[in-house]
């Protein structure tokens, strides 16, 4: 795909130049153009968004395959016999790749909607705060520039010596078949999601991490539940240091710390983080302030880097590496770049992240402080969850102690990826535990399990705010 003309002038001029055509970059260009700005969108590959190609979509395709097998194996609970269940690893990966390619293709079709002359196929490097040098020899001068270069998978030592036996989220989905064994290095959301998905598809998985937590979940009750659930499917080696070397077509992994051991694996999945893709961008020529990691210092309400005409959005700013956040940041950056030097702050939505384990995890808003009121809903005896043979997990609400206004929540359990959207809306609207209890809760649903935690918060408030437990429903309903 190429929108540029072979007879383009050596020097290009525009109002807003955007580097990177991922989710944030596309949103930034579109927002700037809607403000009437003349735009250029620069990308060296036009490969589609990280989400569609190597992130959200292929990972969820693998996850739902594991969930399908788990559901079949659990059918006996309901008196349904299914006999011997087999996993065709090649068929699993073929579907992952086929559907992944469908999503990527749909994303790329959006490139065709770009106006003539907007898209440039090249790499870009700053030579000044308002000037870019392109890899094809041309230069771009712009009133404002948006950095939306995304991120890349880090492969630290010693895993960088393993060759093709070291996988990342950008290569694991290219496997022609499921491996027999897999070591997962890193316990963030990507590592935990893919580790459980592979384990549930019959892969012998072990997960290793330098710290003692999974998924970066701070609430100790949710963290404990997540550990119990993940440990059912694989070996967990937390708070350890890991070494590895290649021996033929296997990887030998050894670890030490809280425990020690050594074993062989077919592959290692390195999920130790995705740093911003900023190397070689020439940021040192711009005069903007960089933090200790070389990432621009910026205002998250305007996406502006200091007092400059440079803006940053998406994974490149290393703040909220989530698709909807990248889209929002791109739109904020694009609008402000088009309006520069007039820049307007935008109120950001509450922090909201999901981990697509089974059951899913959600974290919203802000963590509690010592003055927060906290309410807990235990899903181990929740009525609808028991019906579905999914009775596990916990919801933790955080609220202002004097008003009951919700400030955040951490949750793990069946349907929490959907329930979390209800709570995100509640945070945005400033709802209290009391006003949420005033809404109807249909019986029997997973949502009505939220009431215990909301009532606990209300009971901690002054007496005229207290609420009595409803009668007539089974415990945990």
CATH fold annotation of the largest domain = FAD/NAD(P)-binding domain
CATH superfamily of the largest domain: FAD/NAD(P)-binding domain
Question: Shape, please?
Answer: globular
| Total discrete domains | 3
Radius of gyration: 25 Å
Helix and strand topology:
Blueprint lengths: L10 E9 L3 H12 L4 E5 L6 H5 L1 H18 L15 H21 L9 E3 L2 E5 L2 E4 L4 E9 L18 E2 L13 E5 L3 H12 L3 E5 L11 H12 L3 E3 L2 E8 L2 E8 L3 E5 L1 E4 L39 E3 L10 H17 L12 E4 L5 E5 L7 E6 L4 H5 L6 E6 L6 E7 L3 H14 L3 H5 L13 H10 L17
Parallel strand pairs: 1-2, 1-6, 2-3, 6-15, 7-14, 8-9, 8-14, 9-10
Antiparallel strand pairs: 4-5, 5-6, 11-12, 12-13, 16-17, 17-20, 18-19, 19-20
How does this structure look, described?
- The chain has helices spanning 23-34, 50-54, 56-73, 89-109, 189-200, 220-231, 323-339, 383-387, 416-429, 433-437, 451-460, and strands spanning 11-19, 39-43, 119-121, 124-128, 131-134, 139-147, 166-167, 181-185, 204-208, 235-237, 240-247, 250-257, 261-265, 267-270, 310-312, 352-355, 361-365, 373-378, 394-399, 406-412.
- The protein is of the alpha/beta class.
- It folds into three domains: 11-50 and 101-152 and 275-339, FAD/NAD(P)-binding domain, CATH 3.50.50.60; 159-270, FAD/NAD(P)-binding domain (3-Layer(bba) Sandwich); 352-465, 2-Layer Sandwich (Enolase-like, domain 1).
- Helix 5 links the parallel strand 8 (181-185) and strand 9.
- Helix 3 runs antiparallel to helix 4 (89-109).
- The longest helix is centred in the N-terminal third of the chain and has 21 residues, at 89-109.
- It starts with 10 loop residues before the first strand and ends in a 17-residue tail after the last helix.
């Amino acid at each position: 795909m190429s929108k540029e003309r072979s007879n383009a002038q050596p020097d290009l001029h525009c109002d807003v130049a955007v580097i990177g055509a991922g989710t944030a970059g596309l949103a930034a260009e579109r927002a700037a153009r809607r403000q009437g700005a003349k735009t250029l969108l620069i990308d060296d590959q036009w490969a589609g968004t990280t989400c569609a190609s190597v992130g959200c979509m292929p990972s969820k395709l693998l996850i739902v395959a594991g969930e399908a097998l788990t559901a079949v194996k659990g059918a006996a609970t309901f008196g349904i016999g299914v006999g011997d269940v087999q996993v065709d690893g090649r068929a699993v990966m073929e579907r992952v790749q086929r559907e992944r390619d469908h999503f990527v293709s749909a994303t790329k079709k959006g490139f065709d909607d770009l106006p003539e002359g907007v898209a440039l196929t090249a790499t870009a490097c700053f030579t000044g705060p308002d000037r870019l040098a392109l890899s094809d020899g041309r230069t771009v001068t712009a009133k404002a520039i948006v950095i939306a270069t995304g991120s890349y998978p880090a492969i630290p030592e010693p895993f960088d010596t393993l060759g093709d036996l070291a996988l990342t989220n950008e290569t694991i989905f290219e496997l022609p078949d499921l491996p027999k064994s897999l070591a997962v290095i890193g316990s963030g959301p990507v590592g935990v999601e893919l580790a459980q998905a592979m384990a549930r598809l019959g892969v012998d998985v072990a997960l290793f991490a330098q710290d003692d937590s999974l998924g970066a979940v701070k609430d100790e009750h949710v963290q404990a539940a997540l550990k119990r659930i993940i440990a059912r499917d694989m070996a967990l080696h937390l708070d350890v240091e890991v070494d590895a070397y290649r021996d033929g077509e296997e990887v030998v992994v050894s670890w030490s710390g809280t425990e020690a051991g050594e074993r062989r694996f077919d592959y290692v999945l390195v999920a130790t983080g995705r740093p911003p893709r900023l190397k070689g961008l020439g940021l040192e020529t711009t005069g903007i302030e960089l933090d200790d990691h070389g990432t621009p210092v910026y205002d998250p309400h305007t996406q502006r880097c200091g007092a400059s005409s440079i803006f940053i959005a998406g994974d490149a700013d290393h703040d909220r590496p989530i698709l909807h956040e990248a889209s929002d940041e791109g739109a904020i950056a694009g609008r402000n770049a088009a309006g520069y030097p007039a820049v307007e702050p935008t109120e950001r939505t509450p922090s909201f992240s999901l981990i697509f384990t089974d059951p899913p995890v959600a974290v919203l808003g802000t963590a509690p402080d010592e003055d927060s009121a906290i309410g807990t809903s235990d899903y181990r005896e929740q009525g609808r969850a028991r019906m579905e043979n999914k009775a596990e997990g916990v919801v933790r609400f955080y609220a202002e102690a004097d008003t009951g206004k919700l400030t955040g929540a951490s949750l793990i359990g069946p349907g929490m990826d959907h329930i979390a959207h209800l709570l995100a809306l509640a945070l945005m609207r400033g709802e209290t535990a009391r006003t949420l209890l005033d809404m109807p809760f249909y019986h029997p649903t997973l949502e009505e399990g939220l009431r215990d935690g909301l009532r606990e918060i209300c009971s901690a408030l002054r007496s005229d705010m207290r609420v009595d437990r409803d009668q007539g429903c089974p415990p945990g309903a």
